[in-house]
Protein: Dolichyl-diphosphooligosaccharide--protein glycosyltransferase subunit DAD1
Organism: Mesocestoides corti
Amino acid sequence: MAPRQAKVQAERLIQSKSKSEPHILSVFLDIYNEYRQSTPLKLKLIDAYIVYIFVTGVIQFIYCCLVGTFPFNAFLSGFISTVASFVLAVCLRMHSNPQNKGVFPDYMPEWAFGNFIFAHIVLHLAVFNFMG
């Protein structure tokens, strides 16, 4: 009789743990729903650009690993451009986020966008110069 009671107690313990711990899918769904409801459209567009730049960098890295880096300057300039564009986009998102008004009190989002465009122009001039 004691082994049966131990088995029942173990089943109850497992059921109580499964009820108290949220499933990983529900955690991701909660995060996604909160993101959809509370994030402004402007930040969602910047996030889409960040994801695009990240995927481009991953594709370039996979290509480098599988095929090689024969025109090394071209690969290096493309990868540097991708990483720098990612960093610039993250900076733009940080400065454009309305929740960061306390961190950047005198910094307007329009000014951040102007700096983003200027930095991209300088970056791509350097990249084109490096490609040869």
